[in-house]
Design brief:
Chain lengths: ~400, ~650
């Protein structure tokens, strides 16, 4: 096993309680269509951040007629402030591969690919070892678990360090050897993905959760969380708190409850969802982490009272100016304008009409950018402008 | 990657097909779907893009990265519209209509987004419209006017950020004006499969670069100028040599002559707001004389010469291979009149250089004769002749500068002007071409055959060559075999065409070829296999098939033109271009062909006179070899830095 330096806090993770291969056995014991129904009934939504219902995604892909389909595990964990997939891949890789195998059977794919972010290249030998062991145990390869004609294998592939490659169509372009740039949708990957074949792209945590759902049942899973956000979630907590690390909480936990757990009660704001998420000011700490309130892929950055909130906005926008793929106009040229506005605000020298222009531009970016990167990149800045109006507008021009 | 079921293509798969695949059952494809656009209901075939659907509803949606010749990109976001039920705006150029949809193309959100896109593009678009080669014909300028841009909300660069690249003889690049629509990349990769340009870097640092950012003159660019024809702004343009030509005209010591190719004559009218496909050949002759040219010649004359030289070369190759059993004869023979194609082959298929006809292109044959035969005839000092060629082509600028093109003892052709450059000269001189009286070409090269005219369209060289070969070999009029001599199987815009023609009978060997072959018996009943390709992506298909020993390797003669549609779609033609515009130009060219009485190159009296008076040892003879034939350079794909 590869060592991890990340602390997991609070209760032991549910993943540690799952019996090996119990999920796979259960899934292989029922007809293929029922596998998808089970996932749909569980209410599982994508754990990468977008929250698309997993069962529905699988259903779309299963409905496509094609000689070849793929299931891709998105392990390009690049959102600033998330590191929970790294823990899962290090400690529970078998659960991820189980989930992929179940997915492969459900949609009719014979090959699974783990797309691993460049920074996690040290994990690749470990993952390849686990895959090798699974082949030796007959859990991958031909006639898996004695089911005639059920062939499925998994390979790993490396990303090259671009944040945008976490976007599923950019990930596919990258896998094909091209510049990692998002494609036009439609067609969606479930229809025309890798090498134009129907392809499901699921997050690491989503796939591990699938294995758990089959091991313990949908009712057990729905016992966690809220009506519209079932199950539990791993959160990557960092920033100005006493106990940073990876935590498991059920969906629906409020920001205040979470801060109490991690020792960050005096925070003045929390950035939820990474750089592409929103900045929640203290007055809104009663809001809940759930798809129906504040959706997130699990990144929680605690912002202490000593921080300049504009530094936070500047940091995120510098990130997007670096990481935009540069394909579509709003994202390519819009983020630098956002950054310029923050920097002028920091100096107390942002003309009000320019600020108004940039705010309107942010709204355009949300709706006119090609992919989720550009559609979410203005969110943090816009929410900071709204939530911290006093702190920002009272700033005197620098001498 | 294991199990790839489809081959990896060089172009991203997302960009390889305009057809947009949807989740709904393929059975529905072909069905009509009703869509409401700005309150107007219309029915369109399932899968039609919103952009195309809007056109049928009479609604105009602005575009920048979309182009009728190219695969969809969806990057500029100018065409975004509001689709009911969709959280975000959708690009009309890529979004398919698959069910009853309600679309608003000018809601507040949409107008705001478009204005923002324009303001952002202008925030990095350096340069003044007045001094831009595309002033008045710029898509960005037109949209800025349409969307009422009166100030630069997000700034405007005051200093250039990039150096211009003037290294190429043909294509100039100015990244300062580039809007990153990537039409040039898609043209170079998808249409031409040359792949010189690619997006490099990320975010606002994205630039369009050659390999290792080398100058365009030092990479595998074939100078076809197709990128120039599709650039929406002035970031790519052809080298402008009008100042040099004016200077020659203004110099009383210089005798300035111009030859004009057929393709520009079918398109020049577009620069004077005529419908595409309105020929202005004879009005243009008058304009050229009034502009100050001392001689106005028809490139069709040398096109006929090319046919005879190239046709003779083919007959000689066939004779050597079929009768004399020479196994080293390179077949099929390729045409050599498209300098873009020649350079493409020199870079990508240098092993096939022996297959290329050694006959020069019509431009270069004419050039060699003007500074020799014509100079002798008029008793002119060739050093004082300035030879200009009006071409539809940016690669012709490169071709006339090839170091070997000096067989007259001087640079054979001094300047290759594009249709756009000459149009500019006419405008500068106040010459409104369509309103001028008509006049004929000058002797001694005046009369051309129809065959020369159709050189301007894909398949034209082949058809001309076949007309001549059929008559020379059978001794019968081609009209007795084909109606009006129209060899329909070689016409049309399909990317690659293949045809077989059987020689039904043979006649006596005509005098012009008597010194080369004793009789035609060896061709009696033979089947000529020919092929035609236009656009180098199609040329690549043919070449790969030949390498694999496929059907094209059995051909005798293959015509290849670098540009889509042939010369009429050349990189020097008026902007914009589209399949419809090229089809209209082709109609003009075939109409001109029909207007001529004489239709076969070898019957052209001027050509006959030239062989009688000057090229006295006949086609492929010693003199013609010195002046009318050339050689090629194996270039490969590695270009040393100091090349």
């Amino acid at each position: 096993m590869t060592a991890t330096t990340i602390e997991t806090q609070g209760n032991a993770l549910t993943y540690a309680t799952i019996e090996p291969e119990a999920g796979l056995k259960a899934a292989l014991a029922i007809p293929r269509a029922d596998v998808i129904d089970t996932v749909r009934d569980s209410g599982l939504k994508g754990r990468g951040g977008a929250g698309f219902p997993t069962g529905l995604k699988w259903d779309f892909c299963a409905a496509e007629k094609a000689d070849q389909k793929y299931i891709i595990c998105n392990a390009d964990e690049g959102e600033p402030g998330t590191f929970k997939d790294r823990v899962i891949l290090t400690r529970f890789a078998d659960l991820v591969f189980e989930g992929m195998t179940i997915g492969g059977r459900a949609i009719g794919a014979t090959l699974g690919i783990v797309y691993l972010r460049a920074e996690y290249s040290y994990l690749r030998p470990h993952l390849n070892d686990v895959i090798k062991q699974r082949r030796e145990k007959g859990l991958l390869g031909h006639d898996i678990m004695g089911i005639e004609g059920f062939d499925f294998d998994i390979i790993t592939a490396m990303g090259a360090g671009a944040y945008v490659c976490g976007e599923e169509t950019a990930l596919i372009e990258s896998l094909e050897g091209f510049r990692g740039e998002p494609r036009n949708r439609p067609p969606f990957p479930v229809v025309a993905g890798l090498l134009n074949n129907p392809t499901v792209v699921n997050n690491v945590e989503t796939l591990a959760s699938v294995a758990c759902i089959f091991a313990k049942g949908t009712e057990w899973f729905k016992g966690f969380g809220t009506d519209r956000s079932s199950g539990y979630k791993l959160f990557s907590i960092s920033g100005d708190c006493e106990k940073p690390g990876v935590y498991e909480f059920p969906w629906g936990i409020t920001v205040a409850e979470l801060l109490k757990e991690v020792g960050g009660e005096d925070a003045k704001a929390v950035q939820i969802g990474g750089a592409s998420g929103v900045c929640v000011p203290a007055k809104d700490f009663s809001r809940a982490l759930a798809f129906e309130d504040i959706p997130t892929g699990g990144s929680v950055m605690v912002i202490g009272p000593q921080r300049d909130i504009l530094d936070v906005a500047e940091n995120f926008l510098e990130f997007f100016v670096e990481e935009s793929c540069g394909q579509c106009t709003p994202c390519r040229l819009g983020n630098p304008q956002m950054l310029k506005a923050v920097q002028l605000l920091k100096q107390g020298e942002c003309p009000p009409e320019f600020l108004a222009n940039v705010k309107a531009l942010g709204e355009t970016m949300k709706v006119a950018s090609k992919c989720g990167l550009g559609q979410t990149s203005p969110s943090a800045f816009l929410s900071i402008l709204e939530g911290f109006e006093d702190e920002i507008s009272n700033r005197a021009p620098s001498a | 990657m294991s199990n790839p079921t489809t081959p990896i293509h060089r172009a991203p798969l997302s960009q390889q097909h305009r057809r947009v695949i949807t989740t709904t059952s393929p059975d529905a494809i072909g069905a009509q779907v009703s869509v409401t656009i700005d309150g107007v209901e219309t029915k369109v075939p399932f899968g039609t893009t919103i952009l195309a659907a809007a056109k049928t509803a009479g609604v105009k949606i602005p575009t920048l990265c979309d182009h009728p010749d190219l695969d969809v990109a969806g990057v500029c976001r100018m065409c975004v519209v509001e689709v009911e039920g969709q959280r975000t705006l959708q690009p009309a150029c890529t979004f398919p209509v698959v069910n009853q949809m309600k679309i608003n193309t000018h809601s507040r959100k949409v107008r705001m987004a478009r204005k923002h896109v324009l303001e952002l593009l202008l925030s990095e678009h350096y340069g003044e419209c007045y001094s831009c080669v595309r002033n008045g014909n710029c898509e960005l300028q037109a949209l800025a006017e349409e969307y009422g841009i009166t100030e630069f909300a997000f700034g405007h660069p005051e200093e250039p950020l990039f150096e211009q690249d003037y290294s190429s003889y043909s294509v100039m690049r100015d990244m300062n004006k580039c809007i990153r629509c990537r039409r040039c990349i898609r043209t170079c990769i998808d249409v031409q499969e040359v792949g010189v340009l690619e997006a490099v870097g990320r975010s606002n640092k994205v630039t369009i670069e050659t390999f290792e950012d080398m100058p365009l003159g030092s990479v595998v660019c074939i100078n076809c100028g197709q990128c120039v024809n599709r650039c929406p702004v002035g970031a790519l343009y052809a080298r402008d040599e009008t100042d040099e030509v004016w200077a020659a005209i203004d110099d009383p010591d210089k005798h300035v002559v111009i030859q004009t190719a057929p393709a520009p004559r079918s398109a020049m009218g577009e620069l004077f707001d005529l419908e595409p496909g309105t020929p202005v050949t004879f009005e243009m002759n008058t304009a050229l004389r009034r502009a100050g040219f001392d001689g106005v010649f028809d490139t069709n004359f040398s096109a006929d010469l090319t046919i005879i030289e190239e046709g003779t070369e083919l007959i000689l190759r066939l004779y050597k291979a079929l009768v004399q059993g020479d196994k080293d004869v390179a077949l099929p023979q390729f045409t050599s009149c498209s300098p873009g194609w020649v350079k493409y082959l020199e870079h990508f298929y240098p092993e096939f250089i022996p297959n290329v006809s050694s006959a020069k292109s019509p431009q270069q044959m004419f050039g060699a004769l003007i500074k020799t035969y014509y100079a002798d005839k008029l008793e002119l000092d060739p050093a004082k002749i300035v030879s200009v060629a009006l071409m539809p082509c940016s690669a012709k600028k490169y071709e006339c500068n090839r170091p070997e093109m000096v067989d007259s003892g001087y640079q054979d052709v001094d300047y290759g002007l594009t249709t756009r450059e000459l149009g500019k000269m006419f405008k500068e001189a106040g010459l409104h071409v369509p309103s001028l009286p008509k006049s004929d070409f000058d002797d001694p090269f005046g009369t051309a055959t129809g065959s020369g005219v159709i050189f301007g369209a894909t398949g034209g060289v082949m058809e001309s060559a076949l007309r001549t070969v059929i008559e020379l070999v059978t001794g019968e009029k081609v009209e007795s075999i084909y109606d009006h001599g129209d060899i329909i199987p070689v016409r049309g815009f399909e990317g690659v065409k293949y045809a077989e023609l059987t020689i039904p009978k043979v006649g006596p060997v005509p005098e012009i070829l008597a010194h080369l072959v004793p009789d035609w018996e060896w061709l009696n009943g033979a089947t000529l296999k020919v092929a035609i390709a236009h656009g180098t992506a199609n040329a690549k298909k043919v070449m790969e098939d030949i390498k694999a020993g496929g059907k094209f390797s059995q051909c005798h003669f293959i015509e290849i033109m670098a540009c889509p549609g042939g010369c009429l779609g050349g990189g020097g033609q008026p902007i914009p271009t589209s399949p419809e515009i090229r089809a209209a130009r082709a109609r003009a060219i075939y109409a001109e062909d029909h207007a001529y009485d004489v239709r076969k190159s070898y019957e052209n009296p001027a050509v006959a006179r030239t062989y009688a008076e000057f090229l006295t040892d006949g086609p492929c003879g010693h003199i013609s070899h010195k002046l009318l034939h050339t050689s090629y350079t194996s270039r490969g794909k590695h270009i040393p830095q100091d090349d």
